[in-house]
Amino acid sequence: MRAWQLTDAFGLEHLALVERALGPPGRGQVRVRLDAWSLNYRDLLVIRGHYNPRQRLPLIPGSDAVGRVVAVGEGVTRVAVGDRVCPIFAQGWWGGRPTDADTQTSLGSPGDGVFCEEVVLSEQGLVVPPAHLTDAECAALPCAAVTAWRALVTEGGVTAGDRVLTLGTGGVSLFALQIARMLGARVAITSSSDDKLDRARTLGAEWAVNYREDAGWGRTVRAQAGPVDHVVEVGGAGTLDQSLKAVATGGVISLIGVLDGVKTELAVTKVLMRGVRLQGVFVGSRADFEALNRALEAHPAVRPVIDRTFAFEALPDALGHLAGQGHMGKVVLARG
Asked: Most exposed among 62, 89, 146, 196, judged by the fewest C-beta atoms under 10 Å?
């Protein structure tokens, strides 16, 4: 089979399409022919060597995909040949709180990922996605959608009437917007593009602020929407202070991304004296993914936002498009 691999050095220029051997599935394992893949900012960090500079090579990056089961090993009962399945992000995390061991089973780092034509995985690391979604839409779910679900539902407890602020219009942020609206929450969103803000309004955003034109966007959101109950924080160090200005006393900030830096000076009194809960969200478990799928099946009008689709062979171009941050929603690959 063909696979995109970092062989002996990090960097997009060292990502190459190679031939890799793949054996038959063993007991409890499943072989899956992959048909579509989606990209995450994490993939860029891994490939550039920024996610874990001590990552062992060679490595197949990537964590999000969908495909069909083509063979099963002895004892497999959860799926059958012909089923459409998505791998879960952390193959060993099936439910509950993650352990250190669970986080080490993540696809694409530290172990091989899914930017390849076929994979052999444990049946326990697969879920069946909603039947009404396309392959591209299913491939968009494993990281971005599950992260948004765990932040807002599993950990956040968002309910109807709550106010949610989501930053930007990438995959996690748009899924957070859609899931929050599904729950009956009211949503504010930020972007550097007025066009993207207009498109976000069509998805249900009630308040929209251009952070490039308004450096104090946290206070602006607070003035427009009122203190928000939950912030989906994908910027990191560069945006956390503004998120603290927007969040309500007793509110929640879900720390998810580091698009705008990893280190900041933080006056802890802004958290302590106002009872704000800062929670890190590391994607989610198989149980989270399955709960998300049930919700999507119950709300078939809610569909992942796909920005652009590239051929599998054009992964470097797709990563370049992602790095440019001009996308809205998910960037995906499809089998030719």
From this structure: 196
